[in-house]
């Protein structure tokens, strides 16, 4: 990336991050508090009411099991939703300034990842502090998995942001789709707890693979990337490639449709 | 001569139909599979010209002629539907109202963002910050969100950022009309300095005086096509003349043409003729030849005059005033010629108007008009050049 584009991107990201804090007196508190409340609700409903269990062989509270996967999911879903909105949100800019437009999507997704990575780091630190047994040597693998998740998110957000300029319905549909997707992904439950005929279906959901890999790195004793990681890498690169094709086809005409 | 900074070759732009969702979907699939959408309204048609370094080009035309679209295509905000734009690695800065500012952010934020769009690095922005702020001269408002700015303040800030960048190509869209008197002067001084240092500029303006003052060439767009391109005086004058004529047509559609009049003008020829239109240089000579018919053996009286394109009479004279008579060229047909030399008319659009009167010169029977254009390089205003001399007492 040329120096000029890099500077532009970092400025866009900085602005995006800052805008999350602006206007509300305690913006950063909400940023941490919201996922924490979500975590509290889910662990109460599923851990206490439904008595959801961690898969056999793991000795940890349900909340730890959940938190490890919840934050990556938030990065992914919020990244895609915000990224998909990026072009429409910056309509005024796009019709006035000639700039590489994918920067807007990239900045949007990056800002989400930066913010949630911070939250994720804090949560992991808290888990370690309360004595949850984490697999520290798996940390590099976790970061690699999150990197592929970032690539996937950017690819998907690029495609959706471009399509959304033409197909406005997407804006209404996406949050619902992501809610379904959340429950169809083994975040609140372990695939091994499902009856076999359902568990097989889960493998068709790419997010299952990411969640499994992330948990393997942080909770089980996996250290070296195996072939599932290569699948994640290939899948995310494929999505990025597709997203870029769709974006580059559609982006020259954004101004006509915005 | 230098290689062009930018070359437009047959550039056309169509806006696809976007109102109904069905149309949007169709356009979407067409763009996705074939990279091109069909239908829509044409805004630019086959526009070609070069921008050479050091050029100053004014773009003029009525509202909706495609001026702003052309600028957007040039800056790269819009992709042309057909045609090609070749750019030689250069920064083109478009300056228009709102110039890419996000109203939610403060002026300061937008300043930094805008500078980044124009390719300034962080260090460069810090370095030039004082210059930018003093040029914009909006005081503490810089820390307010842009949505609280007046349009003049937005332009001030936008211009200040662009001025600090010194782009290779400066493109301004009607910005000077917004600022107050003192800021306009500042901008014009800056633009003059920029042009004198070899900068290249394109400007859209409805202020012909400004265009003539700042530009060397002009491009007149009409309904998306290049109506005229060339020297700024020629183009702006024919543009103004066209407007006056259009105005005059709306005011008085009929001109008292009377096919059955007993005394008629059969033909009026102006010279020098120039592919169908008459063009006279200021101070040159205009010849008018009239052919008239009369129902009896007596020659009619002819009156010939010059009116401004909107119909305001400037001068008129009759054959009977000067005691001349048209000569008979065939039974019942007469001809007369008149020439106006040292034409003192200022550049613009005019018409020669002729009337046929009865032989006593009492009743006007027929009226014919032929338009002509006076060209010249002058910024005098009005209709005619009055003899004058300046004295310093």
Automatic annotation (TrEMBL), chain A:
<feature type="transmembrane region" description="Helical">
    <location>
        <begin position="142"/>
        <end position="167"/>
    </location>
</feature>
<dbReference type="Pfam" id="PF01061">
    <property type="entry name" value="ABC2_membrane"/>
</dbReference>
<protein>
    <recommendedName>
        <fullName>Transport permease protein</fullName>
    </recommendedName>
</protein>
<feature type="domain" description="ABC transmembrane type-2">
    <location>
        <begin position="26"/>
        <end position="250"/>
    </location>
</feature>
<dbReference type="GO" id="GO:0005886">
    <property type="term" value="C:plasma membrane"/>
</dbReference>
<dbReference type="InterPro" id="IPR013525">
    <property type="entry name" value="ABC2_TM"/>
</dbReference>
<keyword id="KW-1003">Cell membrane</keyword>
<dbReference type="GO" id="GO:0015920">
    <property type="term" value="P:lipopolysaccharide transport"/>
</dbReference>
<dbReference type="GO" id="GO:0015774">
    <property type="term" value="P:polysaccharide transport"/>
</dbReference>
<keyword id="KW-1133">Transmembrane helix</keyword>
<comment type="similarity">
    <text>Belongs to the ABC-2 integral membrane protein family.</text>
</comment>
<keyword id="KW-0813">Transport</keyword>
<keyword id="KW-0812">Transmembrane</keyword>
<dbReference type="InterPro" id="IPR047817">
    <property type="entry name" value="ABC2_TM_bact-type"/>
</dbReference>
<keyword id="KW-0762">Sugar transport</keyword>
<feature type="transmembrane region" description="Helical">
    <location>
        <begin position="28"/>
        <end position="50"/>
    </location>
</feature>
<keyword id="KW-0625">Polysaccharide transport</keyword>
<keyword id="KW-0472">Membrane</keyword>
<feature type="transmembrane region" description="Helical">
    <location>
        <begin position="227"/>
        <end position="247"/>
    </location>
</feature>
<feature type="transmembrane region" description="Helical">
    <location>
        <begin position="62"/>
        <end position="84"/>
    </location>
</feature>
<feature type="transmembrane region" description="Helical">
    <location>
        <begin position="104"/>
        <end position="130"/>
    </location>
</feature>
<feature type="transmembrane region" description="Helical">
    <location>
        <begin position="174"/>
        <end position="194"/>
    </location>
</feature>
<dbReference type="GO" id="GO:0140359">
    <property type="term" value="F:ABC-type transporter activity"/>
</dbReference>
């Amino acid at each position: 990336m040329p120096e000029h584009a890099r500077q532009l991107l970092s400025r866009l990201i900085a602005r995006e991050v800052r805008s999350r804090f602006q206007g509300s007196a305690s913006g950063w508190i909400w940023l941490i508090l919201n996922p924490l409340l979500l975590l509290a609700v889910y662990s109460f409903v599923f851990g206490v009411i439904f008595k959801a269990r961690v898969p056999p062989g793991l000795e940890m509270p349900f909340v730890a099991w959940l938190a490890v996967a919840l934050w990556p999911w938030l990065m992914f879903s919020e990244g895609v939703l915000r990224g998909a909105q990026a072009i429409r949100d910056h309509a005024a800019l796009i019709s006035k300034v000639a700039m590489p437009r994918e920067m807007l999507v990239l900045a949007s997704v990056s800002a989400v990842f930066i913010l949630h990575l911070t939250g994720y780091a804090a949560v992991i630190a808290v888990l370690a502090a309360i004595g949850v047994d984490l697999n520290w040597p798996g940390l590099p693998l976790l970061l690699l998995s999150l990197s592929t998740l970032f690539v996937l998110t950017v690819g998907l957000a690029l495609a959706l942001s471009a399509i959304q300029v033409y197909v406005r319905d997407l804006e209404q549909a996406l949050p619902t789709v992501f809610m379904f997707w959340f429950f169809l992904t083994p975040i609140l439950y372990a695939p091994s707890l499902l009856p076999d005929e359902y568990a097989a279906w889960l493998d068709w959901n790419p997010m299952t693979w990411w969640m499994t890999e992330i948990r393997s790195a942080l909770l089980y004793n996996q250290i070296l990337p195996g072939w599932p990681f290569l699948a994640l890498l290939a899948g995310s690169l494929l999505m990025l490639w597709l997203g870029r094709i769709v974006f580059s086809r559609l982006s020259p005409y954004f101004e006509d449709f915005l | 001569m230098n290689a062009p900074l930018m070359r437009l070759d047959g550039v056309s732009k169509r806006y696809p139909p976007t109102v109904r969702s069905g149309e949007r979907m169709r356009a979407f699939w067409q763009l996705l599979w074939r990279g091109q959408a069909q239908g829509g309204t044409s805004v630019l048609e086959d526009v070609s010209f070069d921008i050479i370094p050091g050029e100053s080009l004014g773009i003029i035309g009525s509202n909706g002629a495609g001026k702003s679209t052309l600028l957007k295509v040039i800056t790269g905000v819009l992709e042309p539907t057909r045609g090609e734009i070749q750019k030689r690695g250069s920064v083109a800065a478009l300056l228009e109202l709102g110039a890419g500012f996000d109203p939610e952010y403060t002026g300061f934020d937008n300043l930094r963002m805008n500078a980044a769009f124009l390719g300034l690095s962080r260090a460069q922005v810090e370095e030039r910050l004082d210059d930018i702020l003093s040029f914009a001269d909006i005081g503490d408002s810089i820390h307010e969100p842009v949505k609280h700015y007046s349009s003049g303040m937005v332009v001030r800030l936008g211009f200040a950022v662009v001025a600090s960048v010194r782009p290779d190509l400066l493109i301004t869209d009607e910005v000077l009309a917004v600022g107050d008197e003192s800021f306009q002067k500042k901008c014009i001084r800056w633009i003059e300095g920029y042009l004198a240092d070899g900068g290249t500029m394109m400007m859209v303006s409805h202020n012909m005086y400004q265009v003539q003052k700042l530009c060397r060439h002009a491009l007149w767009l009409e309904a998306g096509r290049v109506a005229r391109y060339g020297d700024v005086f020629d183009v702006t004058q024919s543009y103004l003349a066209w407007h006056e004529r259009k105005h005059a047509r709306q005011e008085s559609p009929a001109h008292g043409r009377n096919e059955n009049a007993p005394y008629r003008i059969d033909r009026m020829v102006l010279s020098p003729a120039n592919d169908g239109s008459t063009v006279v240089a200021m101070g040159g000579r205009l010849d008018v030849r009239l052919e008239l018919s009369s129902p009896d053996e007596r020659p009619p009286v002819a009156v010939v005059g010059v009116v401004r394109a909107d119909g305001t009479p400037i001068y008129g004279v009759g054959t009977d005033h000067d005691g001349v008579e048209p000569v008979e060229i065939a039974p019942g047909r007469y001809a007369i010629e008149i020439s106006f030399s040292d034409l003192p008319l200022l550049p613009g659009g005019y018409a020669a108007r002729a009337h046929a009167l009865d032989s006593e010169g009492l009743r006007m029977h027929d009226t014919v008009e032929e338009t002509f254009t006076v060209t010249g390089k002058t910024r005098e205003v009005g209709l005619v050049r009055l003899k004058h001399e300046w004295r310093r007492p």
